[in-house]
User: What shape does this take?
Amino acid sequence: MSRLVVDYILFVFVSACGVLQIVAARARLGRLLFFKSWLPSYALGAMAVAVAFGWFFNSDNRAIPGLGGTEQFYGFVAAFFLALVFTLLLSSLLRIRGVTACQQRNGLDALRDRTYLQAIGRLWRERGE
Amino acid sequence: MSYIKAFDVQLFFLINGLAGRFPPLDSLMVAIVNDYLMPVGLSLVLLSLWFEGASPPQREKHQRGVLAAALAVGLANLLVALLNDVYFRPRPFAAYEVNLLFYRPTDSSFPSNPAAVAFSTALGAWWANRKVGLFLLAAAALFSLARIYVGVTYPMDVVGGVVVAVAAVCLALVILRVTEPVPTWLLRLGRKLYLA
Assistant: This one.
């Protein structure tokens, strides 16, 4: 794998993690955040995006022929998927405390008051019953 | 036809003629025209739309917009590749003395692939959310303008890219409608897994 591919995947991964924190804070998906409150989550998200873009475009000359459209597409999908999995797992580990009896919500809204692993665990138990 | 071509070249030189006069503007345009900045930026904004929505129906509409835009980008790439097979237009720097601020792409100038992809993303988002869509349309327009400014594409190539994008988005929406209930199943599966 070339250095550019690694750089690109890292760039998308970090910026996608940042964007996920910002959108989770906006959508009030509290258990998808790494921090308990909204403001640090916005700050962390914005900082991750700024650092990723700043680093990627200043670490090398990117105005030369590099990745083709197809490579970019696959790299983007892989990095975004990794960022999503990373966010779901890390937020589940960091925000497991303080979850009490909560409302039955469906879809993304379930992540307002329970972590992703707890939500998936509930789904698993329901299937077993 | 020759009148349109002459107008196209004239408009190209009007925009590209500004290059080299204002170094800060040159730097800005070179940054915008980069192969990674706009594609990644537009894609991240589009994907953030997946999570947006005050109510579940509104969020579902956004998610259908994201699906439509993603499908449209694939279709736009396919349409551009098909058009390139039947028609090749040399880049401006291959035909004229231009102010070139970017590397020399080797593919056909018409229709502009970056414009087609950027406008497909923006129009897909616009179908679901006017505010986000307008923001992305402005970004796509700036991206396309920057490509003319740095000397790698003609204005008519951008127009061609926009036409391809409109066709791709319409086709994507038709495909999503015809293949119903598959998109609904996908969204339902996503909701079941707490991802939609």
In short: The interface with chain A takes residues 30-31, 33-37, 39-40, 43-44, 47-48, 50-53, 56, 59, 77, 102-103, 105, 113, 117, 190-196 of chain B (CB under 8 Å). Residues 88 and 109 of chain B are 7 Å apart (CA to CA).
